[in-house]
């Protein structure tokens, strides 16, 4: 008898593209080309089929990001306040009760990983979930339930700016992968942009 896999709960997807890009010479990292297309396009291609609510957090170049989704959001901070600002804005504006969060500089993250995060959260009463790559936490490859919004707002007003610290304080579940898994590489410098292959 074939066992049916339960359907995963619906989710929104947030692509974080609002950084300063300091290690990329100040360039808007999500729009830098990697093997023929912008970094943001790689993640949009993985994420779009699993959600009808794709958001991009960007603080500049909105007209260029609009090619990938009509759901552009800004974190409301002109001083590039960091990824937690984008996550805060995304949780406040997403249409579903769960928000998959992805950084634009990790283009090798696959749909399989994203669905594994969704399944991990669902298996733990819809708690937050995040990737742990060997001993390295990856808070910007994570799933956030909207039920965290009030707690996140309170933490933000109290000065919290670390996604990892917030997630661990709220019993986020780790999704473990081995340290040699190359799908979690971050393209943070021009050298990595040219050296890493898909």
UniProtKB/TrEMBL annotation:
Its main location: cytoplasm. GTP binds at residues 16-18, 29, 75, 105. Its cofactor is Mg(2+). GO terms for biological process: bis(molybdopterin guanine dinucleotide)molybdenum biosynthetic process. Keywords: Cytoplasm, GTP-binding, Magnesium, Metal-binding, Molybdenum cofactor biosynthesis, Nucleotide-binding, Nucleotidyltransferase, Transferase. It is an enzyme of class 2 (transferase). Its EC number is 2.7.7.77. It catalyses: Mo-molybdopterin + GTP + H(+) = Mo-molybdopterin guanine dinucleotide + diphosphate. Pfam families: NTP_transf_3. It is found in: Cytoplasm. Residues 14-165 form the MobA-like NTP transferase domain. One of its GO terms (cellular component) is cytoplasm. The keyword GTP-binding applies. Coiled coil: none annotated. Mg(2+) binds at residue 105. Monomer. The N-terminal domain determines nucleotide recognition and specific binding, while the C-terminal domain determines the specific binding to the target protein. Transfers a GMP moiety from GTP to Mo-molybdopterin (Mo-MPT) cofactor (Moco or molybdenum cofactor) to form Mo-molybdopterin guanine dinucleotide (Mo-MGD) cofactor. Belongs to the MobA family. This is Molybdenum cofactor guanylyltransferase. It comes from Paraperlucidibaca baekdonensis.
């Amino acid at each position: 008898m074939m066992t049916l896999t339960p359907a995963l709960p619906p989710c929104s997807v947030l692509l974080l593209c609002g950084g300063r890009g300091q290690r990329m010479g100040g360039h808007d990292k999500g729009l830098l080309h990697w093997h023929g297309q912008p970094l943001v396009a790689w993640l949009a291609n993985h994420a779009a089929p699993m959600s009808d609510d794709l958001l991009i957090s960007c603080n500049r170049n909105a007209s260029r990001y609009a090619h990938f989704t009509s759901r552009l959001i800004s974190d409301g901070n002109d001083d590039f306040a960091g990824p937690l600002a984008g996550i805060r804005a995304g949780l406040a504006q997403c249409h579903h009760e769960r928000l998959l969060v992805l950084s634009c500089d990790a283009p090798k993250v696959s749909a399989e990983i994203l669905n594994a995060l969704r399944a991990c959260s669902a298996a733990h009463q819809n708690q937050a979930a995040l990737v742990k790559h060997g001993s390295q936490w990856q808070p910007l490859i994570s799933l956030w339930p909207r039920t965290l919004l009030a707690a996140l707002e309170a933490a933000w007003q109290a000065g919290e700016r670390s996604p990892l610290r917030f997630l661990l304080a709220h019993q986020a579940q780790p999704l473990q992968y081995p340290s040699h898994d190359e799908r979690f590489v971050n393209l943070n410098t021009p050298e990595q942009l040219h050296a890493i292959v898909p």
